[in-house]
Amino acid sequence: MTDLQFMLDELSSGDDARAEAVVPELVRLGEASIGPLISLLDSTLPEQRWWATRALAAFSHPEAWAELHRALSDPAPSVRQCAALGLRQHPSPSGISALINALHDHDRMVARLSADALAAIGPLAIPALEIIMRATDPTIRIEATRALAAIEDPQAIHVLFAALNDPSQIVVHWAEQGLERLGIGMAFFKP
């Protein structure tokens, strides 16, 4: 049995401590372990897909990140959550579209972690977040506004100002927070 096969077996063992222990070793092996991890994403067992996603999230490699984008549409919410968290750790503009789509996820944790990942991408995510602010679902607008507030970039000011008129008070709250972080809070003038 090769070292790689041993590590993949440990990752799929069902023992969380053993699986977590081999993740750094899989990363140490480098690109040789990415392909087998991608294959593991096709497992019928959600736990194996979760561990494959967890391991891929530890890589600083575009091929691993692309697979995290794919894992954002996995049938299991836990796998989608893991993928969004991994993309938060490796912010890349290539993930914007997949993360925007994940804001629609019925699992609110997936949506929240995806918004965090969009915020980590920074100003390059603002145009996509501005478009998604037109969504009819207030939970999507809440996460988009929260991401815009966290980005703290002047390019978001006009979107945050428009969000002050949103029917959702939570959207308004995050818009106010974002404007305040940018130094555009309430101003009082002496007459």
Structure explained in plain terms:
By secondary structure, the protein is an all-alpha fold. It has two domains: 1-121, Alpha Horseshoe (Leucine-rich Repeat Variant); 125-191, Leucine-rich Repeat Variant. It has helices at residues 3-11, 16-29, 31-40, 46-57, 62-71, 77-89, 96-102, 108-121, 126-132, 138-151, 157-163, 169-181. The longest helix has 14 residues, at 16-29. The chain is elongated and about 60 Å long. The N and C termini lie far apart (81 Å).
User: pLDDT under 50 segments (min length 5)?
Assistant: none
User: How does the overall form come out from the CA principal axes?
Assistant: elongated
Q: Mean of residue pLDDT?
A: 93
Structural class category: mainly alpha
Q: Which CATH class of the largest domain is shown?
A: Mainly Alpha
- Rg estimate, integer Å: 19 Å
Integer count of domains: 2
Oligomer: single chain
